[in-house]
Amino acid sequence: MNLFFALGFLSGVVQLLGYYYYIKKTKREDISPNPTTWLIFAFDTALLVALEAVAGATFSILFLPLACAGGAIYVAWLVRKNGSLCWPTDTVDLYILKFGIFIAVAYTALFTLWHFQIVSGELLHLAGFSFLALSNLNTFVAFTPILRDVYTSPLQEHAGPWTIWTIAYGLLTILTYLEVGNNQEEYIFFLYPVSCLFLHASMAFLARDARKLHFKKS
Fold first, then answer.
1. Is the dihedral of CA 133, 134, 138, 141 positive or negative?
2. Dihedral angle computed from the Cα positions of residues 127, 133, 134 and 138, in that order, rounded to the nearest 10 degrees
3. Worst-scoring range by mean pLDDT, 22-31, 136-145, 151-160, 190-199?
4. Range of the domain at 52
5. What is the DSSP letter of 73?
6. Can you tell me the distance from the alpha carbon of 85 to that of 76, in angstroms, rounded to the nearest whole number?
7. pTM for the predicted model, two decimal places
8. C-alpha–C-alpha distance, residues 168 and 200, integer Å
9. Cβ atoms within 10 A of the Cβ of 83, count?
10. Into how many domains does the chain fold?
């Protein structure tokens, strides 16, 4: 087992530990997952895994996003089981989800054109990187609903899982740095871990116990 595989595997395991913690808290109703965010997470993360794989990401780099996609889909299913999963009603949230669907449909259409030799492989390759960048941007924006909710009131979230996920993304960022090196064409693989490191750390900070205690007193 080389260092890259070990780091990738470790980041995936830590990510799953975070989901175990989050799901356990959700089932106990200590956490109330934002239905819009988790619907978008489930779709966007699965899409991002596919786009990163097509762009040439190694299995080491894909460990964590695969774990995240599986966990997000399960949380979305839990929210649906509780009857709170629904199509977004907020205009911004709706556009976020629709944009993710657009990326998936557009890339599938382009891939079909390439398959029938209507467009070149070079165009498909360049488009794949562009769609991957857009998918990462959409994932970043997808945090808007849950960040908005936890900023308004941190009582429905818990800092623990978000802290664990922050550690997982930190490991993935280190792995990406070691594996990508000076290959500028693969710098795009930094977008996912770095943005998620910042976003998950922000969630952990906003949902910290000291802030929740302040809200309970006020």
1. positive
2. 150
3. 136-145
4. 3-217
5. H
6. 7
7. 0.91
8. 10
9. 8
10. 1
